[in-house]
Amino acid sequence: MDKTILGVDWGTSNRRAYLIDQHANCLAEYEDDQGMLAVGERDRFGPSLDALRSAMGIDTTIPVILSGMVGSASGWQEVNYLDTSVPLTALPSHLAPVGAAPWSANCRIVPGYAYRRGPSIDVMRGEETQLLGAVVLGQRDGWLVLPGTHSKWVLLQDGAVDSLSTYMTGELYAMLSKGGTLSSLMGGDSSDAAGFTAGLDQAGAGEPLTNTLFRVRAGVVSRSAPVEQAAAFVSGLLIGAEFAAAARSLPAGGTVTVIGSPALAKRYAVAARHFGLQCQVLDPHRVYCTAISQFIKA
Amino acid sequence: MDKTILGVDWGTSNRRAYLIDQHANCLAEYEDDQGMLAVGERDRFGPSLDALRSAMGIDTTIPVILSGMVGSASGWQEVNYLDTSVPLTALPSHLAPVGAAPWSANCRIVPGYAYRRGPSIDVMRGEETQLLGAVVLGQRDGWLVLPGTHSKWVLLQDGAVDSLSTYMTGELYAMLSKGGTLSSLMGGDSSDAAGFTAGLDQAGAGEPLTNTLFRVRAGVVSRSAPVEQAAAFVSGLLIGAEFAAAARSLPAGGTVTVIGSPALAKRYAVAARHFGLQCQVLDPHRVYCTAISQFIKA
Which of A82, A57, A54, A84 is nearest to A67 (CA)? Predict the structure, then answer.
């Protein structure tokens, strides 16, 4: 019988679990809202994992690989960040056993990476697993983008992280939609093409975001800009800020590889074209399953 | 007997009222939380003003000058923005009578300004009254800064608005403190000198705010940056973004004039020095009273 392994992408708000064989086939999957914050106390992660296994009908003999915020100081067990000199394919030899018995027997956490550049630092937890999958699928060099709440731009060189920049794109968009001056203007379609393109244009002009965001309101209250486009404009401003920054280190016509859902990947592809870049898309599910299959041998 | 006038600075969340004579002396003042949002419905502004007059013991024969969000679409009556070709000293001839009788008899709203530069637009409502006061006090040219929730940078030329940029500095700071990834890190002293200076430094490097904000968290979780300084660092990032943008149009050693409370003015003075600029401070109370006294003749 084929060997199998259970991968759990255990984030802040949700977790997703996949039973995977050594050929990276996904045999079963499961998702719930028992993210790090919902679990809460450290000693509740073990029982919470047991509950997940029960729900999936999986016994405790199958090894478990955890990634994401479960390895943070507020998670099950804090796992130190790796230095970016450790290549992604070496992740299987850097797993951290977690918890007391019985979980510690075959339950391990994938460490994240810390990237230092002068006095400043950037970090990832969870994305390293996606990146390993991309490397195994042949994407050893170039810019990879993992859009979302905290959008990651990663430059790979020979299968190792050469640069990392995180943008609070999704988080800021959610904040601005939920409260404050702009929220009442952001009821429109966030994928409106004209609004999104106008936001990308504005982002490329290099003015401070705290000013360009206010001007969204100024445009609407002075009846110079259509309120229906405000949400898409803000999305364009925020995603455009990522591309405007990245465009400094990318040659014109260069390629970025987006690992994201079809809806987000489509929006990033539009932005890439706008900034004169090529865009290719990798399916996050395939990338993740490929990565987890690497840990079967570990 | 000297003529008097009642000035009401009626904002989104609060309102402040000052009884002023023609020499710009403040004879009485009053403040409450009956801002535009608390008043709500359009037809409740008149009774709300009556209540304010009662609280101050002022009868209806004294003229009233309203400024701020009371003149917006969600206020008592929407007053169109003036074009910036209208000089500030002409404001007394552009007042809008407000409401039905009995208020309309001697109750008027100061219009705001809309500033257009190519396709983009910026607006002010309320700050024009402060600016009028500054002009009357001799500040007819140069950069004026009105820090706050929506920080305004205004270039005056011969007593007229030549440029306007609004930054959502205070609003974004409040949002980031209240919820999301950074909020749990921002319990420290927001005026911590080392943290504030480090934030100003970072702002000057010209990287996107959505990235530098995330790196505040990265610094703390990787134990590279002291969590006690995070609030001041974020304040430095946001205020620094204003100066970094303004520094492009200001000669080194140039002067900015801040109209703000002592605490805020002090922080802006530190930032000005950091960016190689001179800073002078005007007292907002004096500036406001000076402006309102101009309307006695109107």
Answer: A82
